[in-house]
């Protein structure tokens, strides 16, 4: 299992600094390693994996399975450092996976500057979970086309925007903004 930690170190550097197309296999392998480490139930090994978790994580695919999301969450909960970017772009996230990852974010001792769940398949009810994790996000929540629609993913509707705006206004953080679409629509806490 220690070999998995070493491979995870190498992959975490490689996959986040190479071309997104070339990095897909590295990102898939990274998730496979997280699953193996998580399923080992070895708390020391899980903590080592959390200590190696990259501060800038970009996942443009692969699609997360339930096992991937659970393992990702298990490790993320134990991350003890500030995360600059956690970008889960086009990962096929559904409610259960998003809930698992959001719970991990809530359980973290530190915060995340930028969290992106663009181009996924979330349910309208997941906006409540988004509102709950807002205090853990410092600068930006990007939710472009993160909701499941009749013809693919869609942007937040008026009701979802209103819930997010209300939650945003209850925060002390005046720097946090929520990117709603690719055209520059955003919510801010003024």
Task: Give the SSE layout.
Elements: H1 2-17, H2 20-39, H3 43-52, E1 56-60, H4 66-77, E2 83-89, H5 95-107, E3 112-116, H6 126-133, E4 137-142, E5 147-149, E6 152-154, H7 158-169, E7 177-179, E8 186-188
Parallel strand pairs: 1-2, 2-3, 3-4, 4-7
Antiparallel strand pairs: 5-6, 7-8
Helix pairs in contact: 1-2, 1-3, 2-4, 3-4, 4-5, 5-6, 6-7
Amount of helix: 40-55%
> How many extended strands?
8
Structural class, judged by helices and strands?
Answer: alpha/beta
**Low-confidence sequence ranges:** none
Strand arrangement within the widest β-sheet reads: 1-2-3-4-7-8
Report the sheet with the most strands, covering strand number, pairing sense and barrel closure. 6 strands, mixed
Straight-line distance between termini? 49 Å
Anisotropy-based shape: globular
Number of helices: 7
- Average pLDDT across residues? 88
């Amino acid at each position: 299992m220690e070999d998995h930690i070493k491979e995870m170190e190498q992959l975490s550097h490689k996959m986040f600094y190479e071309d997104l197309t070339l990095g897909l296999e590295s990102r898939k392998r990274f998730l496979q390693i997280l699953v193996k480490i998580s399923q080992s139930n070895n708390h020391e090994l899980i903590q080592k994996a959390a200590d190696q978790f990259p501060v800038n994580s970009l996942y443009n695919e692969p699609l997360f399975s339930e096992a991937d999301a659970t393992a990702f969450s298990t490790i993320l909960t134990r991350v003890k450092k500030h995360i600059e970017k956690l970008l889960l772009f086009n990962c096929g996230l559904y409610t259960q996976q998003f809930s698992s990852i959001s719970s991990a974010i809530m359980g973290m001792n530190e915060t995340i500057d930028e969290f992106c769940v663009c181009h996924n398949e979330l349910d309208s009810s997941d906006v409540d979970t988004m509102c709950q994790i807002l205090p853990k996000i410092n600068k930006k929540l990007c939710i472009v086309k993160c909701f499941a629609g009749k013809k693919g993913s869609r942007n937040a509707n008026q009701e979802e925007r209103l819930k997010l705006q209300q939650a945003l206004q209850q925060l002390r953080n005046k720097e946090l903004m929520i990117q709603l679409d690719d055209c520059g629509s955003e919510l801010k806490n003024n």
